[in-house]
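Slide 14.
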Amino acid sequence: MRAVVVTELSGPGGMTLQDIPEPAAEGLVLIDVKASGVCFPDLLISYGKYQLGPELPFVPGAEVAGVVVSAPAGSGFEPGRRVLAASQVGGYAERVAVPPAQVLPIPSILDFDEAASLIVNYQTMEFALERRARLRADETVVVLGAAGGVGTSTIQLAKAHGARVIAVVRRDGADDFLRELGADEVVRLGGWGARVRELTGGRGAQIVVDPVGGDAFDEAVRVLAPEGRLVVIGFAGGAIPEVKVNRVLFRNISIVGAAWGEFIRTEPNALEEVHAALIRHVERGLRPVVTSRYPLERAADALRDLEAGLVLGKAVLVQD
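Slide 15: predicted structure.
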């Protein structure tokens, strides 16, 4: 089968398209891959900077959608079933073998591109907003890095939960796109804190979602309303920030982490619960945002574009 193989930990440049044997599938669900999501963990793992560090050479790809080829008896999956899977690695290939617990059915209203996009970002943000931040209807959610995959999924899910959304974006030209997704307000990164305070009548936001880190973190703390929650998703900005705990104490705010991958390693039942919640959102009209499609042989280009901030929403690798 064709697969994209990481041969050295130098980022997208360390990948090559190769013909390799199909994966061994004993006890696993073998999937004929139709679409593979392109996500930030895939980029990090290509540099050897992700918490999961497979030995070289390896096939990256944390999220796939496709058709079951074979499955263990009693797994609940039969050949021909349309499924998505949190593969962790192996997804940039024509076939992948995944433990049954990491495979989920695709509703008929989603195509394979959309289904492959409903995994890392949407699962993380449903978990982050509903379980970690305890989002309530009519609260204000500020979304940093709003034009990327995490940001766009946050906008959609926050609106699905009944929130008011303020999208913070660095790049120009994304305003209409973000408003179409549901953002009530779109503000530029420069001076964003003052603008959020203005838009909230000086009170601040109940929730700030931060996948960026770096310098934005301190301002995110400052714009929280009393009893506000800052949700830490990652550090796309590079630097891991620090906080003075007295600010948390005296302002009555919370800083919470939302590491979805780590959580489901200890609470595996949460995967099905979050998937069910996402399907309910889909049935009410939510559609995963797919804006960029690349053939498998251009996987390195897709990751380069993701790294350069050129992807609005979600990119996928597509196969016939």
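Speaker note: The chain has a mean pLDDT of 94.
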